[in-house]
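Phosphatidyl-N-methylethanolamine N-methyltransferase, Epicoccum nigrum. Tokens?
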Amino acid sequence: MTVNCKAPSSFGFGKAQPSYDVFAFGTCNADNLSTSTPHRLFFQLLPLPSLTDLEHPSDILILAAPATMFDNIDFTQPSLWVSAISIAFNPTFWNIAAQSEYHNKVITKLFGGNARYGCYALAVTIFSLGIFRDYLYNEALASQPASPLLQSPLAKYSAIPLFLTGNTLVLTSMWALGVTGTYLGDYFGILMDAPVTSFPFSVSDAPMYHGSTLSFLATALWYGKPAGLLLTGCVAVAYAVARRFEDPFTGMIYAKRDEERSKGKKGL
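Tokens:
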């Protein structure tokens, strides 16, 4: 069945917006309600004064309303789920690996007892997993529809400062911490002399995590993909859960080191 859709302006509802799409049973010929991006919209059948108001017997007046941007997420795409799994996997992996190293020296033993080599190997692994996660994220966005609500110039170009801020936080924190400080060297017994309090740690207590999350958000906004916003939320949750384990454990490691130092001074 073909449904010819008329804009309801003649009944006092105003002119239908050209960015609206229409959902109906059957097919809909709605040139005046077309959109460049396929997405679901809700509709309401309007009461008609009489059937004589219809140009054709098959006409139905429809008041179109735009769907929310999250109705533009295609959950049937496997790449979306693969990306979400990789986002959850990465912090889970490095926390398990770090805990195994701290308690059992698993990685150090693999490198002949050299803790520094073990830390470097873990750093390369974590960095590679991060690159692969970012690749899967971009592949997931490529298979997802965009939302007109995210395709305005304001939404698109707001991605630029977010991306620059995110990468600044990540890169400067890596510079301040060094390789072993960035990639869990404290679990290998490679401790820093004192906590870093300079930028970016003066503006964020977890600049690498916050910066990474901002970069994911910026990418989603740049391409106008609601699925990217959903996956960015997954990133934020994954990092928040990771910090629930990492922050107290790292604090314990340094508290133990400071206690041993104080005992050593008393012994002198």
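The two ends are 93 Å apart (CA to CA).
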